Amino acid sequence: MAACWLAAARAADIAYLDAVRGERAALDLLGCDYRLYSGPRGGQAWAGFDASGLLVIGPRGTEAGGASFSARDLLVNGQSDQVAYPLLDDPARPGFVHEGYWRQARELLGPLITLARGARAVLVGGHSMGGIEGHLIGHALATAPGVGPVRVVSLGAPQGLDPVAAAALGAAVPIDRLVLPLDPAPFWPFGGRNRVTLRPAGWAHPAPAIRLPAAGPFWRRHALSSYIRALSKLETAP
Asked: Gene3D superfamilies of this UniProt entry (predicted)?
């Protein structure tokens, strides 16, 4: 399992690169080809097939200080009101989702679902904002007709779902939610309002945390490099 987690972390890392470096890294690190998908409101993910027909998807996350970081990332993370989650079709028990994360994930779903229908299986790996968007993308793929097995691996993902939506998503798709000690991101968001009920938002994760051994200084625990360091140690452990 450590090898799968490390591959997902590499996919998340590639998502932070520009197209030229991303294409090279996808081939060198994962043996994948490379396609970059971008939406008009900032959603972005890369996807590619390896030689076995596995489709790897890496939604771009938020890494403060990274080369791909932008003010739009802060705005998306801060758009923490809850809106209706349309992937749940039970009007008697509606679910809700973080407005900013859902808007970015939603604009990528069409091309990714089309691509996934040609895959043997799908692995989604995302860090930070890319982790919660990976949860949402994985749910859409797992419930789309004609798509094979889907697994999501997230690293330091925020919450982004109300308890009803989180439970439904967790039941629909296997999720390995990796968390380093002292990473604050899994506690985000801290507030927000439900746009439908007009009550304060309540947040939940779709899967229990898998706690990794500490790696890196405590002030760098959210950094993807710290997750990769922890996973590299697990992979080489006897």
From this structure: alpha/beta hydrolase
